């Protein structure tokens, strides 16, 4: 029988009680091999429905940490049971984190200088959202999409942005080297202002999944396209 409060489950070390992390289904990994790739994380969480993997780097080098977003809270409960299991010769810590921590890592990804800052527990219902988020970021003509269904294709993405001026030849669905989709895509618009306007579609759905949008750059899109071709 499904428990009415899954966040009371005791999983991993020191998991008897958890602060209220909210319903965003994300975990943080620590202790990853420095040559870890997203495909290794998919294997580590085999059988679970992963929406996004963000490998954290510091000064261009792997930090041994990652954030993994799942399709729902119960997937997180199962993922936490893999705390301290081995990946190669190293055991990996799997623990809860805040949605804010994940967003901070995403926002810092382009700057290449991410530092880990664990958010303090919320003071109460009136806790201000420090990431008011994407409005404060600088926009170019490019948006990055996360959380796409793995079957999503270019026509579906163009349809998603119906009413916005998308450059149809500049829509790139990101794939891993083995050809499987990562759940990410890059979309270029005619102007930076049009890209900002298209952010109105943030957290709207394609199929069964809601899609998150982030400001990006042509350079990041080119790097992703180059990795897809390797």
TrEMBL record:
Pfam families: RRM_1. Keywords: Repeat, RNA-binding. The keyword Repeat applies. SMART domains: RRM. It comes from Brassica cretica. The lineage of its organism: Eukaryota, Viridiplantae, Streptophyta, Embryophyta, Tracheophyta. Residues 141-218 form the RRM domain. The keyword Repeat applies. This is RRM domain-containing protein.
